[in-house]
Amino acid sequence: MAGSSAGRAEYLQVQTTTDSRAEAMELARAAVEARLAACGQVAGPVASAYWWEEELERAEEWFVIFKLPADRFDELAEFLAERHSYDEPEIIATPIVAGSTAYLRWVTDETRPRAEEPGTVQPGTVQPGTAQPGTVQPGTVQPGTMEPGTVEPQTGEG
Prior knowledge:
By secondary structure, the chain is an alpha+beta fold. 21% of the residues lie in helices and 29% in strands.
């Protein structure tokens, strides 16, 4: 089992609540799509009681629970605060102190950008359809040159 190092957890379970299943599902989907969390789970409804603006409130809410490496928490918290409909959303983290090595590796792997995702380029690579300055892509000819064994195109009548 892996999951913690001296004094600080490597992995977290982060939770928030929303007042609708639709918002909960969208927060889960968007955070996972952005690779801020490997997994977003929605559970509910749950009955909540809390103080808000000097009034005791009761509401039906949905949990959204995320699994992620601890180094992704600040980005996820900012993401949730920006997109959440609540003025003061619950954004709390619980350390994952142990877990299966394979699962935790999966959590790490799924929260890192992919080379094939739009907008990401691995160092030292060229995206399809682009060329680095001073290079020629296979199958192309530099201006003013001809490949060996080819004939210049005829212009006009011959």
